[in-house]
Design brief:
With 323 residues, this protein is an alpha/beta fold. Helices cover 34% and strands 10% of the residues. A seven-stranded parallel β-sheet has the order 1-2-3-4-5-6-7. Helix 8 (198-206) links the parallel strand 4 (182-187) and strand 5. It is globular, with a radius of gyration of 18 Å.
Length: 323
């Protein structure tokens, strides 16, 4: 998907984290130690088995740094219910909580690398209902529609289509929150996309952030945790202290600061902080691996895999660079 935003080197409101006191608190920061679901059938786990079968044990050990950690599971099938039901059941049996990404909004990614999604608003409402049905009363965390709000603000989605999208996002939050054990986070871009947090306040309210558990930040991007906390805090302040989660899956070395495709499989990146609810920040509910490390952002360079497909060389580079 297109997570480019605009890689703003100097965050105009980075001072907020210090000025408003969202620095580290106790190690647990008031959160319990949620055990997130590790997907033994994911692409990284399959790659570990393949490398071991070929005797490439050193490379297999590197990929285990991804495969053995909780990664979000992106739900894009036309009928999400069977997959969501199977995963939540397996996670509950293991005493774990799955992390999902709902990714099926009409005109997804504005027809770019990750184009697709529902063909109509009616179809999307039915789809999110089936998603919620698959969860039932089992625990789950759901990140709602990466990029969907950002593409309203960057003029990709305009006019009546923007109003419809805001209504669909609010409906998705409301539908998912009817399930008793679900935490829902509305995607809110990243530190490079937000030039002025005031621009985001009203659209996020219209999209239902006040009915969600908070918002998700830095999904599929590379901004450091420090920069992400600072930028998200500025937005949180405008939303009455809303909580948030940060995608740390690939932000260990921060973003690539040059090139138009710095968002798309950039070289020299590294895995970031491992998934945990012990963040040390009062409003940060979790660091999560929302983008699955090792899966391609898109075929933006010659010979690279399509969005979401496994990319062995890139996965190995992320793991090696993480130390």
């Amino acid at each position: 998907m297109n997570r480019c935003g605009r890689a703003v080197a100097a965050l105009a409101f980075a001072f907020v984290a210090t000025a408003c006191g969202d620095g580290p608190s106790s190690p647990a920061a008031g959160h319990g130690a949620t055990q997130f679901y590790v997907d033994s059938g994911g692409a990284a786990a399959r790659e570990v088995r393949r490398l071991e079968d070929e005797g490439r044990t050193e490379e297999a050990a590197l990929i285990r740094r991804i495969a053995d950690r909780p990664n979000a599971i992106w739900i894009v099938d036309d009928d999400p219910q069977p997959e969501v039901a199977a995963i939540t059941a397996a996670a509950q049996e293991a005493g774990q909580v799955p992390i999902f990404v709902a990714y099926h909004i009409p005109d997804r990614d504005c027809g770019r690398f990750s184009a697709g999604g529902a063909v109509s608003a009616e179809e999307y409402r039915s789809w999110i209902g089936r998603f919620a049905e698959g969860i039932g009363d089992r625990p789950a965390w759901v990140v709602v529609e990466p990029d969907a709000l950002a593409h309203i603000l960057d003029s990709c989605t305009q006019g009546g289509r923007a109003a419809e999208r805001l209504d669909l996002l609010r409906g998705a939050v409301q539908t998912l929150k009817k399930q008793p054990n679900v935490k829902v986070y509305l995607d809110a871009g990243n530190a490079g996309w937000i030039e002025n947090p005031d621009d985001w306040e009203e659209p996020m309210r219209q999209a239902g952030v006040g009915e969600a558990d908070g918002f998700a930040f830095n999904v599929s991007n590379f901004f450091t945790t420090e920069d992400s906390v600072a930028a998200a805090r500025g937005l949180s302040d405008r939303l009455g202290g809303a909580h948030y989660v940060i995608d740390t899956s690939r932000n260990g070395n921060g973003p690539l600061r040059e090139g138009d495709d710095s968002w798309c499989n950039p070289r020299g990146r590294a895995l970031g902080a491992e998934p945990t609810t012990r963040t040390g920040h009062e409003r940060v509910d979790a660091f999560l691996w929302i983008k699955r490390p090792g899966e391609s952002d898109g075929d933006c360079h010659r010979g690279e895999p399509k969005p979401g497909d496994w990319f062995t060389d890139y996965a190995l580079e992320l793991a090696r660079n993480s130390g």
